[in-house]
Write a structure and sequence with these properties.
The chain has 424 residues and is α/β, with parallel strands linked by helices. It contains 11 helices and 19 strands.
Length: 424
């Protein structure tokens, strides 16, 4: 029998009795997938790990707190034997054989009538890999296939009609590897990509030749019509039956005008999917060695858009209140306003010696961190030629880490009113 390959099959276990013998680490790993099938699961074990016990407490399975007894497998469709009691395992395996119930044994694969494949899932596709007696190779092959499906490097054509629509995808702080798995997959499936200049540009080079890439900064529009023109472009391409990705830096809803685009699409009756992104407000400081919170130093952090000065009538920020806070202040789109912002914070009680870090081009090869104080920040930004996109961190957390010299930094905020800025 060992010379013959196993026959792969997908078991439909919803509502059907499944018995699990043993409540240890093996059961803990296997139970979530069984629970997901909707099976009627009975766990037979004198003890269980805290995680397995939590599954029982949540009503996801029934736990009989005792050793295995003959007859426990009656009417079972599938059995997982995973206890440390070899004698009980042997008896359970024999009962499964008599009952013609498929049985997996974690302690003795050769004595089992079924093997558990290395399994992964991506967008409705289940990948199950069996390589006989080499479970590590099974897991490796599984991981490679699932990762390829998720990031789009393994293209599996869809033979059903796709529903046209728009995905608002947060591209993260700049490093192309920091986009989410879902965002990268949607990019690989797109017909049209409308990209901000501060999105992860390297990802655009990986797109198939047929994908139309549109630079949002180059869509024709009048000075005050930028966002409306982008909205119209999204609607136009979606109504033409295309799968459209709006690729934005950082997160679409952190100073990214993502909601404006979502609202415009909703009004036009266009399906819209929002894919959150890693915001530069926390990722860029972290990449530069700065935690936005730290025990005993900062219990809160505040993210502020600095694209207008504190004395600008358009400003919606309560700067005096921010000056009174003891936590961390993170500024996006504030490079050219840091002087006015610093003076305002100092005027309302912030110490001039408060540490400041300016992180340019975060999480990219060009990342650069410059440290200053609130009193010297404007001059340091000028003499250091700090340019957008940059994230500015104000607070004692700046001094917590090892100091300047991180190998990655900023996000997507910027001073261009046409685009949405989470990078700084």
């Amino acid at each position: 029998m060992a010379e013959h390959p196993a026959y792969p099959v997908g078991l439909r276990l919803a509502g059907r009795r499944v018995v699990v013998i043993g409540g240890g680490q093996v059961a803990q790993r296997r139970l979530p997938a069984l629970i997901a099938t909707g099976a009627d699961i009975v766990l037979v074990s004198p003890s269980a790990t805290p995680s397995v016990e939590a599954m029982a407490d949540a009503g996801e399975l029934r736990w009989e707190r005792r050793p295995f007894a003959d007859g426990d497998l009656s009417e079972a469709w599938y059995v997982l034997i995973a206890s440390s009691d070899t004698e009980a395992n042997t008896r359970a395996s024999a009962e499964a054989e008599r009952n013609r119930t498929w049985c997996v044994r974690s302690d003795n694969a050769e004595a089992a009538t079924a093997w558990t494949p290395a399994t992964g899932r991506s967008e409705g596709v289940t990948v199950a890999v069996l390589t006989g007696r080499d479970p590590r190779r099974s897991a490796g092959v599984r991981d490679a296939i699932v990762e390829g499906l998720r990031d789009g490097s393994l293209v599996a054509p869809r033979h059903r009609t796709r529903t046209p629509g728009v995905a608002l995808v947060g591209g993260g702080p700049g490093d192309p590897e920091l986009i989410t798995v879902r965002g990268r997959r949607l990019l690989a499936e797109a017909d049209v990509v409308i990209a901000d200049r501060l999105g992860p540009r390297d990802l655009l080079d990986e797109l198939p030749p047929h994908v139309e890439v549109i630079d949002a900064a180059k869509i024709p529009y009048g000075r005050y019509m930028a966002q409306e023109a982008i909205n119209n472009a999204l609607i136009e391409h979606a109504k033409a039956g295309k799968a459209v990705v709006r690729l934005k830096g950082g997160d679409p809803f952190v100073f990214g005008r993502g909601m404006e685009e979502a609202q415009a699409l909703a009004e036009a009756g266009i399906a819209c999917t929002v894919v959150p992104g890693i915001s530069s407000s926390i990722s860029v400081p972290g990449a530069a060695g700065i935690p936005v919170t730290h025990r005993g130093v900062a219990h809160e952090f505040t993210v502020v858009s600095g694209h207008v000065a504190p004395d600008d009538p358009r400003s919606l920020v309560d700067w005096p209140a921010l000056a009174r806070l003891r936590g961390t202040l993170v500024l996006l789109m504030a490079v050219d306003k840091i002087g006015a912002i610093a003076l305002t914070l100092i005027a309302h009680g912030k110490s001039p010696s408060t540490p400041v870090a300016l992180i340019q081009e975060g999480t990219t090869a060009a990342q650069r961190r410059v440290d200053a104080t609130l009193e010297t920040a404007a001059e340091v930004a000028r003499t250091g030629d700090v340019r957008p996109p940059a994230v500015i961190v104000i607070g004692d957390v700046v001094s917590v880490g090892a100091g300047p010299g991180g190998d990655s930094g900023s996000g997507d905020g910027h001073d261009d009113p046409a685009d949405g800025p989470d990078r700084g």
